[in-house]
Write a structure and sequence with these properties.
Family: Belongs to the universal ribosomal protein uS19 family.
GO biological process, one term: translation
Function: Protein S19 forms a complex with S13 that binds strongly to the 16S ribosomal RNA.
Structural class: alpha+beta
Number of helices: 2
Keywords: Ribonucleoprotein, Ribosomal protein, RNA-binding, rRNA-binding
CATH superfamily of one domain: Ribosomal protein S19/S15
Number of strands: 3
Protein name: Small ribosomal subunit protein uS19
Shape: elongated
Strand order of the largest sheet: 1-2-3
């Protein structure tokens, strides 16, 4: 849910101070725990290390990200995969087709042009 227009977007003041200390386009990562901070046009071109609860995920701010939150680009959970018998069957079938392609390439006669 968006923040009230009367209040304006939430931007962490400490983060703004860190941005003003650095010059635009520098490769140095600005570490932050402020996942709820809204990306503003002043942040474009900087790389932020957004904390996901375990480590800092590097997020490079671009024009398309303006208006979004920093936390949207740093997932807190790791998707392993959907489990179950059907998923195993699908993965086994994919592995078989890949193996068939590899064996077909190895067994194909080489054609040499004169």
């Amino acid at each position: 849910m968006s923040r009230s227009l009367k209040k304006g977007p939430y931007v962490d003041e400490k983060l703004i101070v860190k941005i003003k200390k650095q010059r635009s386009g520098s490769k140095e990562i600005i570490k932050t725990w402020s996942r709820g901070c809204t990306i503003t046009p002043e942040m474009i071109g900087f790389t932020f290390g957004v904390h996901n609860g375990k480590e800092f995920i590097p997020v490079y701010a671009t024009e398309e990200m303006v208006g979004h939150r920093l936390g949207e680009f740093s997932p807190t959970t790791k998707f392993s995969r959907h489990g179950g018998r059907m998923q195993r069957e699908v993965e086994a079938k994919a592995a078989e087709t890949e193996a068939a392609k590899v064996s077909a390439v190895k067994n194909a006669p080489e054609t040499k042009k004169p």
